[in-house]
Give the backbone structure.
Amino acid sequence: MFENNNLKDIIRYFAGFLFALQLLLRSFGFKFLNNDQIDAVVNIVSFLYILYFGAKHNYVGKKGQAQKALLQEAGLEKSTNTTTKTEE
């Protein structure tokens, strides 16, 4: 149903599920969730999504630092050093 690591689709599916649940419960007379509560839940999930992928794709952690060093050695990532090979 969901692609591997496709969190955006999961968030959309979760929001749709909450709205559908709200409509179902209201048809039976239950006022379990309102739109503001659903928006708050979706905002919290989106916030966590942004934090997770911000950390994952910005070389935070041991694995990311090792990947950044490997990219710098291959010349695919800008180095923080100001010296170049021609200056050495």
The mean pLDDT is 77. Residues 7-73 form one domain. The chain has three helices and no strands. Residues 35-56 form the longest helix (22 residues).
